[in-house]
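Structure in, sequence out. Go:
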């Protein structure tokens, strides 16, 4: 029996979806070892109320640290606290998200504990007491299966690869104290500025409509926005060609030097499918490509392809989605 640690991310007093994904992945590992899931949740006063949601997704224990110094992500204090809890908890593994926060936090903890970390994993499993993580390499052309020999094994999972699964557990709350005064950290996040208020984050959106140079102009992105709005749960992404030209902000870029995404549905609109773009989206569950060139490389990774002019196809698709979703 071995317990598994999960880092539950919160922002602005709310749990992030990746927190539930992390607990779901940890639950899967714990079920294989017959152990428990212990989640760590840090935030300002009141964050304890969110422990229930973690319990509903498989946390047996929720360690909570409330402190004003945790109002925003606090890299030094969060790393110190998580490292201490992981170190003294005797965990077999610790699970993080490969979110912006997790990318910063997990390596800090691996360094503090002097243990191995596999980032950006697309699946994790226990095999004869060894944690195996599947991890895309060589800009996504190869999926390596990596065995982590050190204990605890640290792993971060790509957002959206584990859908949160309801699995109610006790979720016993244990209050924990910060290691040092979080208000005295040398690095202080003073403000979080959300790109596009009310819009879905690319890493969390179940549907992504991404546009490329085939759209011809920044103005034509309105057809991509319309299709995203028709779905109701979609975010808009872009290729680097588009962000370099200033048609969309850099934060929309998907790929090797942009965001890594794994939505349920990815619609590539006027995108050629360069390897650097595929590196950021090829793990999407269903890929639809629209391109006027039937030989465009994007069709090699697409589950469904439409050969045609995006300026004709996308508005027709939007009308069809609106019709299908009438009444929703
Ligand atoms: C180090 C490095 C890192 C990079 N990182 C990234 C990254 O993170 N993300 C990324 O996206 N790229 C990245 N790139 C750039 C990448 O190599 C490609 O140049 C880029 O992805 C191409 O973008 P695109 O598909 O929009 O444009 P293009 O390659 O120009 O493709 C446009 C496509 O639109 C189609 N088209 C044109 N008109 C129409 C129409 N009317 N209807 C339908 N289809 C049409 C064309 O057939 C073509 O396939 C990187 C490159 C390097 C060297």
């Amino acid at each position: 029996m071995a317990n598994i640690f999960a880092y539950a991310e919160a922002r602005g007093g709310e749990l992030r979806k990746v927190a539930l994904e992390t607990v779901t992945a940890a639950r899967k590992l714990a079920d294989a070892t017959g152990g428990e899931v212990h989640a760590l949740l840090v935030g300002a006063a009141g964050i304890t109320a969110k422990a229930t949601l973690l319990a509903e997704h498989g946390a047996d224990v929720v360690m909570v640290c409330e402190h004003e110094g945790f109002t925003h992500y606090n890299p030094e204090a969060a790393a110190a606290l998580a490292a201490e809890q992981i170190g003294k908890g005797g965990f077999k593994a610790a699970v993080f998200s490969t979110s912006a926060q997790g990318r910063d936090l997990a390596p800090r903890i691996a360094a503090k504990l002097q243990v191995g970390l596999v980032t950006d994993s697309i699946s994790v499993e226990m095999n004869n007491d060894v944690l195996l993580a599947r991890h895309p390499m060589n800009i996504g052309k190869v999926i390596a299966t990596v065995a982590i020999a050190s204990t605890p094994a640290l792993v971060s999972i790509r957002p959206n690869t584990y859908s949160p699964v309801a699995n109610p557990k006790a979720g016993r709350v244990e209050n924990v104290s910060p290691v040092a005064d979080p208000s005295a950290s040398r690095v202080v996040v003073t403000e979080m500025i959300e790109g596009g208020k009310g819009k879905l984050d690319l890493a969390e959106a179940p549907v992504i409509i991404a546009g490329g140079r085939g759209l011809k102009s920044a103005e034509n992105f309105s057809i991509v926005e319309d299709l995203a709005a028709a779905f109701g749960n979609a975010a808009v992404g872009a290729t680097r060609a588009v962000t370099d030209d200033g048609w969309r902000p850099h934060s929309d870029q998907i790929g090797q030097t942009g965001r890594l995404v794994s939505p349920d549905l990815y619609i590539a609109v006027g995108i050629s499918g360069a390897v650097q773009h595929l590196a950021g989206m090829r793990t999407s569950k269903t890929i639809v490509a629209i391109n006027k060139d039937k030989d465009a490389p994007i069709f090699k990774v697409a589950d469904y392809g439409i050969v045609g002019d995006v300026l004709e196809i996308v508005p027709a698709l939007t009308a069809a989605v609106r019709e299908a979703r009438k009444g929703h």
